[in-house]
Amino acid sequence: MNWFFWALLAAVFAGMTAVLAKIGVEGVDSNLATAIRTTVILVIAWGVALASDKLSMIAKVSPRTLLFLGLSGVATGLSWLCYFRALKMGEASKVAPIDKLSVVFVLVFSAMFLGEAITWRTCLGAAMITGGAVVLAWR
After folding, report:
1. Residues of the chain whose pLDDT is less than 50?
2. Model pTM?
3. DSSP conformation letters of the chain
4. Can you give the residue range of the structural domain that contains 63?
5. Which value, to the nearest 10 degrees, does the dihedral of the CA atoms of residues 48, 49, 50, 53 take?
6. pLDDT digits over 78-90, tens only?
7. CA 81, CA 25: separation in Å to the nearest integer?
């Protein structure tokens, strides 16, 4: 199984996440809902790490890696807090497409910080994603 399979599976689970979270955030503060979700993810992630016997590698993780994984965790946490707040206030079918504008931001940030190429295809794809998100979120 290659990266495409795993990316597609991630998209399926992300799609399920929006619907399940919208149902779950009903009647509860969005920040508390995020905390509950994060606790479940924490248990699953550590369970997988322990089951795959990779915990011994933790001593080999460099300070730079820890820093960037930590910053990624901060960004993820802030994203989830904002996402759950948006789900609490709006329709899942409108919130999710705007959230997926993250793809456009990834294209920009990966060019700025990772030196990845921005081509006419990248620009066309970003424009199509942006257009699709706007069309789906439009009232």
Report:
1. none
2. 0.85
3. --HHHHHHHHHHHHHHHHHHHHHHTTTS-HHHHHHHHHHHHHHHHHHHHHHTT-GGGGGG--HHHHHHHHHHHHHHHHHHHHHHHHHHHS-HHHHHHHHTTHHHHHHHHHHHHH-----HHHHHHHHHHHHHHHHHH--
4. 3-89
5. 120
6. 999 999 999 999 9
7. 12
CB-neighbour burial class of residue 87 (10 A; exposed 0-12, middle 13-18, buried 19+) = buried
Asked whether residue 77 is assigned to any structural domain, the reply reads yes
Instruction: Tell me if 95 is assigned to some domain.
Output: no
Indicate if 72 and 109 belong to the same structural domain.
no
Asked whether residue 67 falls in the same domain as residue 121, the answer is no
**Other CB atoms within 10 Å distance of the CB of residue 7:** 9
Question: Can you tell me the distance from the alpha carbon of 21 to that of 24, in angstroms, rounded to the nearest whole number?
Answer: 5
Does 63 share its domain with 116?
no
Q: How many residues does the chain have?
A: 139
My answer on whether 14 and 59 are in the same domain is yes
Counting the structural domains of the chain, the total is: 2
